[in-house]
Specification:
With 141 residues, the chain is mainly alpha-helical. The protein is 81% helix and 0% strand. It is elongated and about 40 Å long. It has one domain.
């Protein structure tokens, strides 16, 4: 019975609890990552698009998915009533994340010599913390 209550608490009602928000943000991030990573892989491998361009498109699509998930399931409070302004700030944070993503991917692929998908895994790990902390404290206090 306690496990069912825990699952309900983790998945249903929005909460101010930082642990729950982090957990849900990670779930949303996982969903967004699958979208991002898949888009990167398919565009680069089958579409023969340059990996950094594919990475940018995948990142933007994944960020949009994550934004929708965040407002629906993660953060109970929103700092801005104007949804357009909120999305613009969310997107600006995402653009900085995109710049970091591109820089990490370029560095680890072109300079270190890793496969672009391994570079994406490293970039994602770092950028996850950037995105969560800045979005939490700037948008969803």
């Amino acid at each position: 019975m306690d496990k069912i209550l825990l699952l309900k608490k983790l998945s249903y009602k929005k909460s101010d609890n930082l642990f729950l928000q982090s957990f849900r943000y990670a779930v949303g991030g996982g969903i967004a990552f699958v979208v991002d990573f898949s888009f990167l892989f398919f565009l680069t491998t089958y579409g023969h698009v340059y990996y950094l361009l594919s990475a940018a498109f995948g990142y933007m699509l994944g960020s949009t998915v994550h934004y929708i998930f965040s407002i629906l399931a993660v953060f109970p409070k929103r700092s801005y009533e104007n949804r357009t302004a909120e999305f613009m700030i969310f997107a600006l944070i995402g653009l900085i994340g995109l710049g970091l993503n591109e820089a990490f991917m370029w560095f680890f692929t072109s300079r270190v010599g890793l496969h672009y998908l391994y570079s994406k895994l490293i970039a994602t790990g770092v950028i996850f913390f950037w995105n969560f902390s800045t979005r939490k404290f700037m948008l969803f206090r």
